[in-house]
Amino acid sequence: AVNRPPIWCPGCGDYGILEALKRALAGLGIPNEEVVVVSGIGCSSQLPHFLKTYGIHGIHGRAIPIATGVKIANPRLKVIVVGGDGDGYGIGLNHMIHAARRNVGITYVVSNNQVYGLTTGQMSPTTLRGVKTKTTPYGSIDEPVNPLALALAAGATFVARGFSGDVAHLTQIIDQALTHRGFALVDVLSPCVTFNKVNTYEWFRARVYKLEEAGHDPSDYWQAYKKAVEWPSLDPNGRIPIGVFYKNEEKPTYEEEIIKNLGVPPIEAGVAVNGKAVYGILQY
Ligand code: SF4
Ligand code: MG
């Protein structure tokens, strides 16, 4: 977190994500020193360098375990994970599932450009069927990952999708995610203008619609699930809902459960509690 200017390609969707994240943090008045932004590897994973907060530019697909450690150690910190679809829904997918089922209180913002951008345009886990990429010259034959449906099935307590071409709307979503107690997934449709010539800003603008304008009730789990599979699972050519799909503030968070066991957050407990090493209690 050195707060240097971004180095993304002009027009990259990641600029919209950075802007929305900055606006949401500023709007909530969260001090920089109470924020830790953790990332993996990829174009979007460079984001912690472009903020004044604390940050860890981690290893490929492992941002969530790093962030989980930070949040468990000191639950008072606002812990945000940022990364791409390759990093988070490919190599790191299982970490999202486990963070969701544990309800770790972190905000996970995924820049989903449906391609591997940093490595110059290979098919990613969210590439739609039929899309031609460097590694799918005849068009992808894979069923794309549906991150929202997976997160809901895993027990995530906040599930949303934004669009980096609508920064004001994305800011509102991130604002809600940051104020949510438990695990929050914000999948962001974020065009890679250099390597994805199919899923462009125009492509998304012609398809997205806002859940809150369609009478969606985010407290209804099954309604949320139906909306989550609307695209791309049911209709890859259909309209794409954006907004908050699901929100449940009732479930206890992982860090709350740990504090229940220790009496205090691990950072205050030191290396041992009642003669037992803290890491022993955290083992799973
Ligand atoms: Fe953004 Fe794509 Fe350029 Fe990476 S390669 S910075 S994802 S436009
Ligand atoms: Mg990507």
TrEMBL record:
One of its GO terms (molecular function) is thiamine pyrophosphate binding. Its cofactor is Mg(2+); [4Fe-4S] cluster; thiamine diphosphate. Residues 192-258 form the Pyruvate ferredoxin oxidoreductase beta subunit C-terminal domain. It catalyses: a 2-oxocarboxylate + 2 oxidized [2Fe-2S]-[ferredoxin] + CoA = an acyl-CoA + 2 reduced [2Fe-2S]-[ferredoxin] + CO2 + H(+). It holds the Pfam family TPP_enzyme_C. Keywords: Iron, Iron-sulfur, Magnesium, Metal-binding, Oxidoreductase, Thiamine pyrophosphate. The keyword Signal does not apply. The keyword Magnesium applies. Its EC number is 1.2.7.11. InterPro entries: 2-oxoacid:Fd_oxidoreductase, OFOB, PFO_beta_C, THDP-binding, TPP_enzyme_TPP-bd. This is 2-oxoacid oxidoreductase (ferredoxin). It comes from Pyrobaculum arsenaticum.
